[in-house]
Amino acid sequence: MQFGLYAPVPHVTVGSQQILNSVENGQKSLSAGAVDQAYTLAKDVLLEAERQNFDIILFAERHLGADMEAWILGSAISSLTSRIRSMIAVHPGLWSPQLIAKMASSLDRLTPGRMAINLVTGWNIEEHTMYGGDTMLHNDDRYIRAEEFIEIVRGMWQHSPYSFKGEFYEIEGAELLLRPATKEPPEIFTASRSERGLDMIANIADWWFVDYDKESETTEDVMISLQKAMDSVKTRAEKVGRKVRFAYNPFVCFGKSVEDAKARAERLVATNGNDTDVRKLLNRIGPAMKAGCVAPPQQVRKQVEIFREMGIELLLFKFVPNIKETQSIGREIIAPMRKQWDDVQSL
Fold this sequence. Notes:
This protein is α/β, with parallel strands linked by helices. It has 12 helices and 12 strands. It has one domain (2-22, 36-346): TIM Barrel, CATH 3.20.20.
């Protein structure tokens, strides 16, 4: 079992005053020698995550907003780490596969061998149009394009010169003179829920962030929905001779009881927001809070074991990003669970 977290950036972060300050001041110049507060927060939290033995960071990509560019932020943080991996998001509708192949190889050699790609097929029409791309939101072409995109990236990692002719891309003799650091190429993570999107996952993904019924009312409902979704993708992948690994994104917050943990989560999320803002934030993370990980630590550990037994191999935790919460997850989840599994293996 691996453990991960999101890099704190505005569009995925709740409960952070530094993020709020960064957004508010995003269009203002910084004072002499100052660094953006969002970067300082990311650096502090993510370096602590490495010390707490987290395995991977997801750097989400959002251009229409105050978020720092994902590849820039991911590269800056990666230069400071020594073990944790960096998974950086990319939208095929905004990047060329040739350029991403080169960027990924570069980062993989600088880390070395510690980068992965989070493939995002896209949904934000305004953002894609503004930044020169296309979401292809209303048909299945975006999944065909994504498959071709990854085929080209992997092809260029393995062959130079490389040629490709597909429905959306045509490349003749492209040269990539900088291979990834290791023989095993960087892994491809992705998320999708549509029928064609699930076929895309079976065809090209190494990992799937499992989707489930967001209307699930209880943790038991969530688990049933997760298992059903995983079984579907397993069947699709087997049909094309592949295996896909599974990841999931629960929200984590500890308390003396489930009710206390929920109340604490709401207090943390409510940092510097009015009632309307807080309700919006809670609605945004609400489904992830039904995963059974807003509870006393011992109960969360039991839930983690259930995830592991059902075949989920990565938990990418959502939580209010600060040093204290990061240390708490390391102390209450990562360290004891790893010790438990090591003890079992040694028997």
